[in-house]
Automatic annotation (TrEMBL):
Pfam families: VTT_dom. It is a multi-pass membrane protein. It comes from Lentzea flava. This is TVP38/TMEM64 family membrane protein. The keyword Protease does not apply.
Length: 216
């Protein structure tokens, strides 16, 4: 199987985050939006439609640059803790399973749209450093989750092993975001929770990446 460098989406979440934060500051300064009213509206959406929309966006995250962190926070805001947590976990695992299936069964031209040979090589280094726990660690890092899922499929890692360790990493991350989202009362709080979670996980990614590169 040959790989070529495809379209790189990894910087798009940063652009989306910057746009959201800038828009929030502008709207807040000009008092254009009732932020408390927006949260009330979100909580008033039919739970079925909210669940369908959030689940669908979480699953297609493997192919499209959908920011999963705000979606998981919104799952808590719109659906509350028990249902929001269940939806976030199932949606995240669905995204991981879809990525695994893509890496294992899709044609090379489609796989290389998601992961390059350089990324595959780096993923193998991470795997040697952390073993199967790598799948759990990666689930909480937005820039890595999709790449790792596809790479696991390409490498033909046993699906049960992949899904088990992914679940171990998914549950605490989703629980933290959904709990925070369920307690958010304004859009400011939703945005700040999403931004803080995103920045923390990105910082963790770069820290772990330095450790992996320094390893023999």
């Amino acid at each position: 199987m040959s790989y070529e460098t495809g379209v790189r989406w990894k910087w798009i979440p940063f652009v989306v985050l910057a746009f959201v934060l800038l828009s929030w500051l502008v709207f807040e300064a000009l008092d254009l939006i009732d932020f408390e009213g927006v949260v009330t509206w979100v909580r008033g959406i039919d739970p079925v439609w909210a669940a369908v929309a959030i689940f669908g966006l979480l699953v297609v995250d493997v192919l499209l640059p959908v920011p999963s962190t705000p979606l998981i926070v919104l799952a808590g805001t719109a659906l509350g803790l028990p249902l929001g947590l269940a939806l976030a976990i199932i949606g995240s695992l669905g995204s991981s399973a879809a990525g695994y299936a893509l890496g294992r069964f899709a044609r090379p031209w489609l796989v290389r749209r998601v992961v390059t040979i350089d990324e595959l090589t780096e993923m193998r280094r991470w795997g040697r450093q952390f073993g199967p726990w790598f799948f759990g660690v990666a689930r909480g890092i937005p820039m890595m989750a999709e790449t790792v899922s596809v790479s696991a499929g390409v490498s033909r890692v046993p699906f049960r092993t992949f899904l088990l360790y992914t679940l171990v990493g998914t549950v605490p991350i989703c629980a933290a975001y959904v709990l925070a989202g369920s307690r958010a009362e304004t859009v400011e709080e939703v945005v700040m929770i999403s931004a803080a979670g995103f920045l923390v996980t990105v910082g963790l990614f770069y820290l772990l990446r330095r450790l992996v590169k320094a390893a023999p």
